[in-house]
Amino acid sequence: MRNLLRDRSAATAVEFAVVASVFIPLCLGALDAGLLLWTKGILQSTAARTARCAALGTTACSDPRQFAVTTAGNLAFPGIIANADVAQPVSVCMSSAQLTKVTITSAYWAAVVMPAPFAHTTLTAVAYFPTATSCSS
């Protein structure tokens, strides 16, 4: 029994098991949070570009929803959002200024890869861009 208590040959393996059980989930959680923030940034940038395109009425934006899908695919990867995720741009008035509003709502794509803790997270990005006209009261 004395020899067993003095034996330190597996101490490193036990220490690794204790540290890794905390460190690995912490690293994966940080990676997942980073992917979530990156995706949110892509959606916000896409919404801003789509709102601008729709407000200016350029020929590249004849279909704003498809423009948003293409833009998000170019910024991230194809298929990150679908046409159904993009609301049709609408005109809104705020403080007597007319703005074009674009809303993108999408499920977090990486929840399939890493289900916890961000499973079933829905991301929403809203952007406004002013139009040349003012609101009529």
Describe the fold and architecture:
- This protein has helices at 2-6, 11-56, 64-75; strands spanning 90-94, 97-107, 122-134.
- With 137 residues, it is an alpha+beta fold.
- The protein has one domain (11-134).
- Strands 1-2-3 form a three-stranded antiparallel beta sheet, covered by helices on one side.
- β1 (90-94) and β2 (97-107) form a beta hairpin.
- α2 (11-56) packs antiparallel against α3.
- The longest helix has 46 residues, at 11-56.
- It is rod-shaped.
- The N and C termini lie far apart (91 Å).
Topology:
Blueprint: H1 2-6, H2 11-56, H3 64-75, E1 90-94, E2 97-107, E3 122-134
Antiparallel strand pairs: 1-2, 2-3
Helix pairs in contact: 2-3
Key structural traits:
three-stranded antiparallel β-sheet; alpha+beta; single chain; 46% helix
The average pLDDT value, as a whole number, equals 87
Annotation, overall tally of beta strands: 3
Counting copies of identical and different chains, the oligomeric state is: single chain
Give the percentage of residues in beta strands.
15-25%
Q: Percent range for helical residues?
A: 40-55%
Which structural class do the helices and strands define?
alpha+beta
Return the domain count.
Answer: 1
- Strand count, sense and closure of the main sheet? 3 strands, antiparallel
List low-confidence stretches: none
State Rg. Answer: 24 Å
- Strand order in the sheet with the most strands: 1-2-3
Query: Which sequence of SSEs, written as H and E, runs from N to C?
Result: HHHEEE
